[in-house]
Write a structure and sequence with these properties.
The protein is of the alpha/beta class and 241 residues long. It contains 7 helices and 14 strands. It has one domain: 3-Layer(aba) Sandwich (Rossmann fold), CATH 3.40.50. The strands form 3 sheets. It has a 6-stranded mixed sheet with strand order 2-1-3-4-14-13. Forms a heterodimer with MurT.
Length: 241
């Protein structure tokens, strides 16, 4: 089996180790003899190349880099939405989902109109409002996910389900206990860390979904030895700060 993974603006959008998520996806596929091709989805990418993707990843970015990417990303909005509407999964961290909602208001008060794929809006209230920084624990269905957040923007969901519930940390806004959002098989989250190394169950959920959509059948992934990954997960789960 083969997978093509599209990576949104790798040179602009990969804060706090987010590129580590790509390495996890590559390794977990390789260990199972699934061939992986990574393509950047950025200024040079054609719609046809985007259509060939089986999974999309987008990492975090500072306001400035988000501002540099958004005009080009908007041109790709309808192609990406078509992909997601036929079930292609995605993982979007922090700055990326802010651009996939209706808009992101930067710390300087500049409104970046987003793709509107996730029914939500994000606002940075300026330097006087403290950033959300720290290790996080969330509940994802009956499981836990751990991460690290560092964002000035706050996200408010409209008619869209959160990805998870906050156990520790701010999550979307520090007010309503929601964390991230879900559109079809796409996950938005504020979790850096990077996220997937300590959450192998989320990595495999994404890989299985990508294969299911591509090959049109239910996929049982071969189990891997994840003892180190779960040790890291457990450590973060019980860490005091
Ligand atoms: N610039 C955005 C914010 O501060 C996103 C930051 C990030 O991706 N870590 O909210």
């Amino acid at each position: 089996m083969k997978l093509t993974i599209g990576w949104l603006y790798p040179e602009l959008m990969s804060t706090y180790g987010d590129r580590g998520n790509i390495f996890v996806l590559i390794k977990r596929c390789e260990w199972r003899k699934i061939m992986v091709r990574i393509i950047p989805v950025d200024f040079r990418t054609t719609d046809k190349e985007i259509e060939s993707c089986d999974l999309i990843f987008g990492g975090g970015a500072q306001d400035r880099q988000q501002g540099l990417a958004i005009d080009n990303l908007l041109k790709k909005g309808s192609t990406l939405k078509k992909l997601f509407d036929r079930g292609v999964p995605g993982l979007f961290v922090c700055g990326a989902p802010q651009l996939l909602g209706h808009y992101y208001m930067t710390g300087d008060g500049k409104k970046l109109i987003g793709l509107g794929i996730f029914d939500m809006e994000s606002k940075h209230f300026g330097k006087d409002k403290p950033r959300c920084i720290g290790n996080t624990v969330y509940r994802w269905n009956d499981k836990t996910v751990v991460g690290f957040e560092n964002h000035g923007g706050r996200t408010y969901l409209a008619n869209v389900k959160p990805f998870a519930t906050v156990v520790k940390g701010c999550g979307n806004n520090g007010e309503d206990k929601t964390e991230g959002a879900v559109y079809k098989n796409c996950i938005a989250t504020y979790s850096h860390g990077p996220f997937l190394p300590k959450n192998p169950h989320v990595a495999d959920w994404l890989i299985a979904k990508a294969l299911e959509v591509k090959y049109g059948k239910k996929i049982e992934l071969a189990p891997l030895d994840d003892s180190l990954e779960w040790q890291a997960h457990e450590f973060m789960l019980h860490k005091k700060s």
